[in-house]
Amino acid sequence: MKGFWILKGLKFAVLGAAFVSLASLAVMLLWNWLMPAIFGLGAISWLQSLGLLALAKILFGGHRGGGRGWGNHKGHGHWREKMEAKWEGMSEEQKAQMRERWGRGCGHQRNWAPKEDTQKEAG
User: Fold this and answer.
1) Nearest CA among 35, 36, 69, 31 for reference residue 50
2) 3-state percent breakdown (helix, strand, coil) of the chain, nearest 5
3) Disulfide-capable partner of 44 in 48, 53, 95, 118 (CB 3.0 to 4.6 Å)?
4) pLDDT in tens, 45-61
5) Is the pTM of this model over 0.85?
C-alpha cells in the first residue's frame, strides 16, 4: 500500500514538471514571436520564461488562504453569513423544506448547516 502512494506521488511530480515545462516553452515561444516584433525586446531562453512564469504567479495570483485569490472576490466570501441571515427569516415550514432539499442534495454531503442545527446535534 505504501508503494502505491509513492508511485502516485512520483506520477504527480512528473506530470507537474511536464506541465510547467510546456507552459514555459509556450511563454518562451510567444515572447520570442511577439515581443521583438512589437516592442523591440530581445529573445528569451526557456529558463528566463520559467522565471517570468514564477514572477507572474507571485504578482498576479494563486495565493490561497486570503487576500485576492480565487473565490475571494468582493461579495463572494461571506456566503455563510448570508445564509444564516436568510435562515433567521424563514418560517419553520420553510426550514423543514430546506432541510429536505439538503438531504436530497446532489449526492454530496451538505457543507452548511445553520448554527441552531449544529447546536442541536452537539447537545
Assistant:
1) 31
2) 70, 0, 30
3) 48
4) 999 999 999 999 999 98
5) no
